[in-house]
Amino acid sequence: MAQRVYATSADYGNLAEEPFDGDPIKLGKRLRSASIEVEGLTSLSRFNVDSDGYPTDADVSDAFTEATVAIVEHWEITDDPTGAEAQQGAVKIGSVSLGTTSSNQTAASPRDKLTTRIGEKAVAILSNAGLLTAIISHT
After folding, report:
1. Which of 22, 29, 58, 71 is the most buried (most CB within 10 A)?
2. What pLDDT shows up at residue 34?
3. Is residue 91 part of a domain?
4. Number of CB atoms found within 10 A of residue 1's CB
5. What residue ranges of the chain have pLDDT lower than 50?
6. What's the pLDDT score for residue 137?
């Protein structure tokens, strides 16, 4: 089964605040990666799908599209499409520390960690649509 992609480059152009700063192939890859995030985050949610696995309810479909675009926007802002930097602790050189301290990263709630990785807007879109699990939405 091919990976479902929930937003197109045209959707990005219509929904994003700023144009994509890169080539169309890179945008396509980012939309695919963001779709993987959306699918993973909503895997425990209940909604009707068509024979290809796409949501049939217009509101759910719109939330998938908007969240996918919002994730790519967040990655453009943070320049962290893999989420590696969001999971990284502080970098310390001598007495200088950059980033979060390891104790702050450990203390972050699941929602805070998710927001760091995909952005507040995407979390809000999926949460408002009732598509995130309770532990992420209400922590």
Report:
1. 71
2. 97
3. no
4. 5
5. 102-103, 137-139
6. 47
Q: Is residue 101 part of a domain?
A: no
Chain centroid to Cα 8, Å, comes to: 15
pLDDT of residue 130: 94
Structure tokens at 121: 């807007």
Q: How far apart are CA 70 and CA 65, in angstroms?
A: 9
Amino acid at 6: Y
DSSP for 8-63, please give it.
Answer: -HHHHHHH-SS--SS-HHHHHHHHHHHHHHHHHHTTTS---B-TTS-B-SHHHHHH
**How confident is the model at residue 53, as a pLDDT?**
95
Domain annotation covers residue 34: yes
Cα separation values, 25 from 8, 29, 128, Å: 11, 6, 31
The total number of structural domains in the chain stands at 1
The span from the CA of 8 to the CA of 34, in Å, is: 11
Can you give the pTM of this predicted structure? Answer: 0.82
